Amino acid sequence: MILIYGIREHLNPIKAQLSDVIHGCMQSVLGMPEDKRAHRFIPMDAEDFYYPGGRTPAYTVIELNMMEGRSVDTQKALIKALFSRVHSEVGISPVDLEVTINEQPAHCWGFRGMTGDEARDLNYKVKV
After folding, report:
1. Of 47, 61, 40, 46, nearest in space to 8 by CA
2. What angle do CA 128, 42, 101 make, to 5 degrees?
3. Cα–Cα distance between 46 and 8 in angstroms, integer?
4. How far apart are CA 113 and CA 57, in angstroms?
5. Which end of the chain has the lower number of beta carbons within 10 A, N or C?
6. What is the radius of gyration, based on Cα positions, of the chain?
7. Alpha carbon 80 to chain centroid, angstroms
8. 36 burial class (0-12, 13-18, 19+ CB within 10 angstroms)?
9. Burial class (CB in 10 A: 0-12, 13-18, 19+), 64
10. Which residues of 109-128 are buried (b: 16+ CB within 10 A; e: fewer)?
11. Element (H or E) spanning 111, and its range?
12. How many Å separate Cα 32 from the centre of its chain?
């Protein structure tokens, strides 16, 4: 599950393109299949979205929620791929992008009527 926050006027026009870039990074770095896109865009009014100094109204936050298992090197590669591709393909400067990875144990995930640690039919690897 990926949550993307930004100021409404800046986020709404780029949602589809940003989703494609994020998912492309998930595929190339983590090996996620095409049909495993779970993105939630949260466009906010400017008065509800405070951001650090030195940023512009294009400031965007990407929160990646994943089952634990990816190595530190893999996580860093994903973050760096996002910075690079979001900048080159969407035009958001790395200074205006914040990326966080939140990992939870597989037993804390529930989907298709089971917990993540019970799933034996995932068509992607978690331990990469």
Report:
1. 46
2. 25
3. 7
4. 40
5. N
6. 15
7. 12
8. middle
9. buried
10. beeeeeebeeeeeeeeeeeb
11. strand 110-111
12. 12
Superfamily of domain 2-40+53-103 in the CATH hierarchy: Macrophage Migration Inhibitory Factor (3.30.429.10)
Domain boundaries, the chain: 2-40+53-103
Q: What pLDDT, in 10s, does the model give residues 61-112?
A: 999 999 999 999 999 999 999 999 999 999 999 999 999 999 999 999 999 9
The answer to whether 2 and 66 are in contact (CB under 8 A) is: no
Query: 3-state DSSP call for residue 36?
Result: coil
CB 2 within 8 A of CB 38: yes
Instruction: Answer whether residue 120 shows pLDDT above 90.
Output: no
In one-letter notation, the amino acid at residue 105 is: P
Task: Check residue 122 and give its pLDDT.
Answer: 86
